[in-house]
Amino acid sequence: MHILVVEDDPIVADILGMTLEEAGYFKTTANTIxxxxxxxxxxxxxxxxxxxxxxxxxxxxxxxLIRKNHMPVPILVVSxxxxxxxxxxxxxxxxDGYLTxxxxxxxxxxxxxxIIRRTHGHSSATVNVGNLIVDLSRxxxxxxxxxxxxxxxxxRIIEFLALRKGAVLSKDAFLNHLYxxxxxxxxxxxxxxxxxxxxxxxxxxxxGVVIDTIxxxxxxxxxxxxxxxxxxxx
Length: 234
Description:
Blueprint: E1 2-6, H1 10-22, E2 26-30, H2 33-42, E3 47-50, E4 53-54, E5 57-58, H3 59-68, E6 75-79, H4 84-93, E7 97-100, H5 105-119, E8 126-129, E9 132-135, E10 140-143, E11 146-147, H6 152-163, H7 171-179, H8 188-203, E12 209-214, E13 218-223
Parallel strand pairs: 1-2, 1-3, 3-6, 6-7
Antiparallel strand pairs: 4-5, 8-9, 9-10, 10-11, 12-13
Helix pairs in contact: 6-8
């Protein structure tokens, strides 16, 4: 998942970036509203981590611009301003959450993951599709009581599918999620990952869940109530 960190203090930006990378996220940093807007228009950004005090204006202006342009990305404000009026203004501008500096890195990740889940319609830390359970906070997936032996990238793929259950996701979207635009391999690598992931899910006894190939578009994770076993699509 690709996080845009909008923060003008390079030390704070580095700390936030390291925290996100340790949690398994990719990050891009912008130090002004203008550069943040450029990244939002030209990169596939999943979430915005937003400071309020920026060199070219109040961060809430960026939040308003994001919502005005109907960008669906969740926004978590991280600010040294602790006043209730600041929080009300940020939420009113379109932010999904507000975290006051200084904070523990685990608190940051927990808040970030919570707004990502809420944005995608998941109130809890787990997503259930058939007898597949994806735990978004503890980074594992299981079929019934059997925990799947997944590589880091395989889990990130199933996490991505689970967060957007019912939506068709392109190979380019998967590449961005897995590699964040850095040293990306050819799109056909996604077919290889999907083949291995489907086999592991099927071998574990999956039922009521399907990862379908939508030819020319990508992949979709769906719940299949009428199926007793995982459908394997080429």
